[in-house]
Structures are given as C-alpha cells and as structure tokens.
Amino acid sequence: MNVLIVGLGLIGASLAKTLKKNTNHHIIGWNRTESVTKRALDDGVIDETGELCEILPKADITFVNFYPEAIPAFIKENKDYFKKHSIVSDSCGIKTKICRDLEKENLDFYFIGAHPRAGREVSVYDKALDNLFDNASFICTPTDDIPRSKTDALVGLAQEMNFARTVVTTPEHHDEMIAFTSQIAHVLACSYVLSPLAPYHAGYSAGSYRDVSRVARINADMWTELFIDNKEPLVREIDDLVSNLMKFKYCIVNEDADQLHDLMEKGNKIKEEIG
Amino acid sequence: MNVLIVGLGLIGASLAKTLKKNTNHHIIGWNRTESVTKRALDDGVIDETGELCEILPKADITFVNFYPEAIPAFIKENKDYFKKHSIVSDSCGIKTKICRDLEKENLDFYFIGAHPRAGREVSVYDKALDNLFDNASFICTPTDDIPRSKTDALVGLAQEMNFARTVVTTPEHHDEMIAFTSQIAHVLACSYVLSPLAPYHAGYSAGSYRDVSRVARINADMWTELFIDNKEPLVREIDDLVSNLMKFKYCIVNEDADQLHDLMEKGNKIKEEIG
Q: Is the ipTM of this complex over 0.90?
C-alpha cells in the first residue's frame, strides 16, 4: 500500500517511522514547511514526497496530522485529489466535531477519525520516535456510513504497526473518555503549577509533584482548540473533579477523619483495581 | 555512632538500609511487630535489637518512624530512656504539630523533626530500598532551642547517607511547602480517579492518566492524619487549585480561546522554568 503522512510533527513523523520499522508499505510524506519534508526524506523517514495534487491521488491510506480545526479544512479543500474509495484518517485528540462535520460532506473516499494515544511534552519532528506507539492504544471512530471493510483495513494497519491495542468506538464516546483520561489531566496539571508556591518547590518536592505536574508542559495553541472543541464532556469532568476536591476540603475543614478516610480508601481501591 | 531506627516500615527500613550501605555506624532497630524486627536482623538491615529500655539509652541519633500522631506520644512515653543530649528525630510528612508540641516538653535530649522526601505506593518493610533516598531531599526543622551543632550533626548524617540535598527550615514553612508539593497532589489524584469514567479508562488512557493518577494509591490511615494535622496550608492549596480549575472552566464554557491560551501558556512557562 501507499501510506501518505500529511504533517510531519511529533505524531506524523512517529507514524511514518513506525510504518517504516514495522511494515513494508511505501511511505509518502508531506509537510507545510518544506524543509521538514526534506529532512524526513533525507533521514529515510519517508520514501517519497511531491505536490499534494500528485501524491494525494496515489495514497491508499492518508493520515492528516494537523491541529483539530485545520483537519476538516484541509480535507475539504483537497477533496478532489484524494484517491477514490481510499481511507483518509487523522490523529488529533478530539473526534466528534471533525467526524460529524466530514460526515455531511459528499466525499468519494472514506474518512475515519483516529487517535493514536501517545504523545510527548514537545511536539516537533525532532522528537519523533519509532517506538512512541509500542504501548499505545489506536482508537478509531468510524461514522455509520463507513463500510466495515474500511474500518477493518485501518485497524489492520494499526495492528501491523504494532500498536498494543486497537479500539473502535463512536466519536462521542471517544471524546467523553478522552475528556477524562487526557484533557482533565492536562487542565489539572496546569492548574496545579499555577499555585503561588510552585516556583519554590525545589528541595521540597519528590515523585508526586513530578508526576502530577508533568503534563503542565503543554502546547497551548493545540490544546486551546482541543478543549473548546470538546467543551461539554470536559466541563463535566471539571465539575466532577471540583466536586470531589470540595468533598476533601469539607472533611479536612471539619476534621472529619472517618469521612476523609472513606474518600481515600475509595480512591485507593479504584486505583488498585483499574490500574 | 549508634543510630537507632524505631519503626521498620518502608521509610524506617529504607533509612536502615541506606545507613548500612553508605556509613559505618552501628544500626540498632526496633519494631512494634516483633517478627519484622527479627527479619530485619536476619536480613542484616540492622545490627542489633533489644527492649526499648535497653536500646534507647545507647542511641546517639534515634529516628522514630511512625504515623504522625504516634510520634510525640512515643517520645513522651519513653522520654526517660533516651540518651542525654542525644538527637531524636522522625520521618513523617508534617512537622509543625509535632515540633511545636515537643518543644513545650522538658526533654534532656534534642528533638529535631525531619522529613526524608521519598516514598512508594506501598509502605511496608518488604518494599524498603537502600537507594530510595538517592535523589531525595532531607528536610529538617529545628525549633529555636536546638543548638546549631545538633542540627549540623543530623544534616551531616543525611549527607553521609547520600541524600541528594539537605534543607533546614522552620516546621511551618515545611508544612506550607509540603501542602503544595505532596499533599494536594495526593488529594487531586484521589479526586481524579473518583470520576465515574475512571473504571473505563483502559484503551483510552496513556501517560497523562498514568502519571496524574499514580498517587491515588494511598495509605488512607496515614494520610488522614497528615491532612488533618496540616489543615490550614492544605485547605489554602485546595482553594487555589479549585480557583484555577474554575478559571479554565470559565474560559472553556465561554469559548474564550485567548484567555484559555494565556492560562496554559502561563502554566507551561512556569513548568518549563521550575522543572
């Protein structure tokens, strides 16, 4: 197959490297900033590049690796170039807005939203890894009009690429789960380091500070889009989190040791069970 | 010197192992559950044990490794046994309540509160490590009546033990910083996994979930005491965190991309600068 990677940042270039490492597919690459495409070609991360009007028609599967808002825009703008009946996918962190938007378009190829669940604090070509997805889940969110064979082909490619797990679900369920597993974790890491005491942590901090604050290193441009595009599920998670924090506060203020103990025992038990 | 470790759980036994590995001091050990003391002796983690009335008078430095409430109680109960002019210390996570309580006692030895900044999810003898403190900070909080030479001796021992850093500060400053670096991190990890979506995370989660939820594995007995004993600083941190979360919520609900971007950029910059 010809697999086309559009956008060679951290995720795009890691997808390309993973494809090169684990499959024999022919990898075509394209990046808005041409110097990056050239480096990927020189590094052997991709086999070929070219003008969009030349390479889009060749690709059996295309991954568009842009910030959320740019993905449907790019696909609509280039919709006449994509190979007929081919699979077009993406890798961004929200799915409902993109999939439901493109579902309404009259496309002669199949858009299946995808989300490879891995990342790093810095999202540039240089940080790409051929093992970024080794322990990762590949989630894809076909809408009802997608033939089963197309979803199977995309999932099959993810398995060939050595993803640890593949999940097929709806865009809405994906976004609800991601609000919990990823988005709120980033919101709270940022909120945590905004404490006035954060700059003085050295000498007082250890593993808990290190782990809880890690994802405060955030790409503000990308996450602004991701958060606003997933407003309702994320706000529900913020509300749940604040409500749980207030339960802790209430127990501590009232020195209610029994209730506080119960809350922690519940948290501990959940974490023990779910990993 | 004779160094006595009272309480051979995770921290006590790790202190003993670290002393054996990095110093030539004679290590005496004692644990409430005798079978643990016997194992520590058999494992060579301690050199000697005995009745409290025999071993307390021999120790030049004693570390009492109990839950917070039990520490002043133990020290007062056994105050006639400790060696005159010796140093008595502890290892628990709050300092003000303990140090200010013992400061009022008429003791003929020197109590200097201490907090070796490391831990693991499970706090038992079996999990003790001789390298638990290799990258850790040793904080001690002498009250005004402690001679400088005694603080220097305790800090000197921590340096011999290969702690990465030593900090001398007041009990109050310690507790304020620990409310931020450790306690609120545990509160938020527990609050996070109490989300109704937590049990369904598998397939949707990656590094951010893993790191932010890690310390939800918590010893509820110990942390109940630690949180209530450090009520005011911890409630301040909960209030700050909730206020920052509400700022995020406000931006997201109102789709205020500029403000949301500013908040994240601020969090990102702080984390980049402070590590």
A: yes
